Amino acid sequence: MGMNASGIAEKLEQFLCVSFGIAEDDPGFNRSVDLFMAGYVDSVGVIETLAYITEVFGVEVPDEALLSETFSTIDGMAQVVAGLMPMEASAKWDVQK
Q1: Is the pLDDT at 97 greater than 70, yes or no?
Q2: Per the UniProt record, which residue ranges are transmembrane (predicted)?
């Protein structure tokens, strides 16, 4: 069963809040904030987040995606992960036929 970017973003948001002690009512924290520039996630946090993505979603994030500006937000991470998931990829091909 494929998961859309919104569902992925929700899981990532929950993981980040729990793992990095981010309060749910933190006024600066949202799905479009740059997690690294705002100081929510550091270099060790990136490794933990990548391990979580691999474990939960079953995908490996390539370096070019990891280093992209897109990957700096929850919504961006979710888009990258959704694009890497096999179910999502097969659904895209079905639509194009």
Answers
A1: no
A2: none
